[in-house]
Amino acid sequence: MSLQLTYAATAPAAADTVFILPAGTTTLPDAAATDLPDVARQYVNDQLAADSKLISLNHFTHQHYFVVAADKATPALAAEALRKSGHQMYARLKTDKVAALYVQDLTSDSAGALPLAEGIALSAYQFAGYKTDEKSQQAPTLAQVYLTGSAFTTQLVQELQAVVEGVFLARDLVNAPYNKLNATQFAERMAAAGEEAGFQTEILDLVRIEALRMGGLLGVNQGSPEPPTFTIMEYKPEGATNAKPFVLVGKGVVYDTGGLSLKPTPNSMDMMKCDMAGGAAVVGTLYALAKNQVPLHVIGLVPATDNRPGGPAFAPGDVLTMYSGLTVEVLNTDAEGRLILADALAFAKKYDPALVIDMATLTGAAARAIGQEGIVGMGTTDDYMQQLQQSGRRVHERVVEFPLWEEYAEHIKSDIADIKNLGRAEAGAISAGKFLERFAEGYPWIHLDIAAPAYLMAPDSYRGKGGTGTTVRLLYDFLKTQA
């Protein structure tokens, strides 16, 4: 991450500075930009009276910016408005070629600087990619954002830095194409992240996966020229406050053609490098937790493979025997994510977890239901679900709970196996969740379907375009509250 967030006690004179003003401000407070000449102060006051929310002044030697906090119904919505203001700020900072920005928060509770800085930092993401011309390789000018004042500490600012780095790690993985990130390379990248951040990684290869009889992962992998992997990440710091671990499970389909149930290419298969966004979110979350030394025992499980229609590929009509022993009739090879997640969810039981959360780009039904504005959630624990939804509102990665009524079990009944991997046309996201529920027995469990927000085809404020790193901030906030 090229942009660094840093704490500074005060801003030096003639520094590029943004002042966050309280909601409803119509006259510039005396404490803001004390070096302004009267004519410049009058200009700012005129802009405030005209209800401008982002004002800039060019002093030739330095820039002054003024952002008015939004008057929203809840603190969470006010924070989100400031993240979006941070995105607008970043565009202005690029134009003005600002290298270092100081943030001074003049709101009464100093609650605006962190979300504004977060919006700036998340907007600064650039995928390194594979371009070779010098112009496209130019680094952005902005390199430092300093948060100033007594309301902040070095630790608080560094915590935000690590969370943003976790999001960027997830984005980088999602944006990497399959020929640069097969299942083995994905596992190696997760192991490298563990070495950097401070968590342990174990990679199960094909032989060990076969020994464990993970029929779902092996079945999806049958048509691939590349072997599968099953990555186990464990962050267990001294002084962890939880007796039972929290387990995160992420779908790691590094590329999905749909298998023999082949996808159409336009607007479908062409973006399927993103089908491992759940697995990317798991490693991004563990990275942030470990970097910030959150005292919580957390385990991450990522089954990884691509899904291809090669010669021995599994076919509609096949019956797979899963790690749990359940049999599954495959009616659609493009419903593969639930098959590899099922093995991981059954495997998670060995840890006697306090809670298991899985995340996956699982169904188009979830995307159609609520769009890219939210995450579809289902589960078997009301208390944890409510806490997760509260975290979702704080970080603006909101979770909409869908039901898992017993009647939905009828959608996945099979004539020849225990269950089938495809439900009805109606309630497709729920029948996928109901399928996973059969393998998540013996512990509290939450399923997050991130099909819509994980990868965006057009820029959306600070989430950008392409991989968004969705659920890293959500899970970090949720898990921190459990410590």
Automatic annotation (TrEMBL):
**Gene3D superfamilies in UniProt:** Leucine Aminopeptidase, subunit E, domain 1 (3.40.220.10), Zn peptidases (3.40.630.10)
Domain annotation Cytosol aminopeptidase: ranges? 332-339
Q: Which cofactor does it need?
A: Mn(2+)
- Amino-acid positions noted as binding Mn(2+) 1 in the UniProt annotation, renumbered to this chain: 256, 334, 336
Q: Which residues bind Mn(2+) 2?
A: 251, 256, 275, 336
Q: Which UniProt keywords apply?
A: Aminopeptidase, Cytoplasm, Hydrolase, Manganese, Metal-binding, Protease
Q: How is the cofactor bound?
A: Binds 2 manganese ions per subunit.
Annotated InterPro entries: Leucine_aapep/pepB (IPR011356), Macro_dom-like (IPR043472), Peptidase_M17_C (IPR000819), Peptidase_M17_leu_NH2_pept (IPR023042)
| Enzyme Commission number(s) | 3.4.11.1, 3.4.11.10
Q: Where would you say this protein principally sits, based on its record?
A: cytoplasm
Keyword Thylakoid in record? no
Catalysed transformations (reactions): Release of an N-terminal amino acid, Xaa-|-Yaa-, in which Xaa is preferably Leu, but may be other amino acids including Pro although not Arg or Lys, and Yaa may be Pro. Amino acid amides and methyl esters are also readily hydrolyzed, but rates on arylamides are exceedingly low; Release of an N-terminal amino acid, preferentially leucine, but not glutamic or aspartic acids
Which sites are catalytic? 263, 338
Class in the EC hierarchy, top level = hydrolase
| Gene Ontology MF annotations | aminopeptidase activity
Q: Say what the protein does.
A: Presumably involved in the processing and regular turnover of intracellular proteins. Catalyzes the removal of unsubstituted N-terminal amino acids from various peptides.
Q: Which family does it belong to?
A: Belongs to the peptidase M17 family.
Name this protein carries in UniProt: Probable cytosol aminopeptidase
What organism is the protein native to? Hymenobacter defluvii
User: What gene is behind this protein?
Assistant: pepA
